[in-house]
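yo

u said u wanted the structure for the complex thing, so here. seqs first:
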Amino acid sequence: DTGVSQNPRHKITKRGQNVTFRCDPISEHNRLYWYRQTLGQGPEFLTYFQNEAQLEKSRLLSDRFSAERPKGSFSTLEIQRTEQGDSAMYLCASSLGAQGLFADTQYFGPGTRLTVL
Amino acid sequence: AQSVSQHNHHVILSEAASLELGCNYSYGGTVNLFWYVQYPGQHLQLLLKYFSGDPLVKGIKGFEAEFIKSKFSFNLRKPSVQWSDTAEYFCAVRGFQKLVFGTGTRLLVSP
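structre next:
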């Protein structure tokens, strides 16, 4: 499978615990994005990387959230001191980042569903 | 700031009926527009996209969308839906690098 993969697919945690999610983008895609989706809403942008550089962060990304892409390949999203309001589907997407007809089409992974009890 | 509005939250159709899902966007720059589909239990998949050129865009599975700049619209159409089109459909506009999505339209096609 050469698509975007995310692990774990489901995570149940207690309020106050830390959680970490991983995203593996499509190989040779240099841009990687994180989104959050809650019930009845479309995905909301959290942050994005070009190679290892984090270039934009949404106001949704509070200080408890941190994302890394240390070698420009896979990325991790960590949530510290989870709250019930963090319960959502966390989606990762990647894109080639090249110019042209197929510029920046984002391809999404299956997501990690987080439930905070 | 960019925004996307999808007017129909739930649509129920019978097989072979025609489909049109509304999408209006707000963005002052050059727009890239997308429709994504999420089938039950599956991840978001690209249905079609508009970057430039012909405003009538054809996508997979017989879907098409028309970009009307004067109306800030990018409506999705299909002349004859099938039961397998049951899914949630999201319109999105790309501003800089991020995508801004609408709230989605749940389509149920009854056989």
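Chain A touches chain B at residues 31, 33, 35, 40-45, 48, 55-56, 58, 91, 93, 101, 103-111 (CB under 8 Å). The mean pLDDT of chain A is 91.
cya
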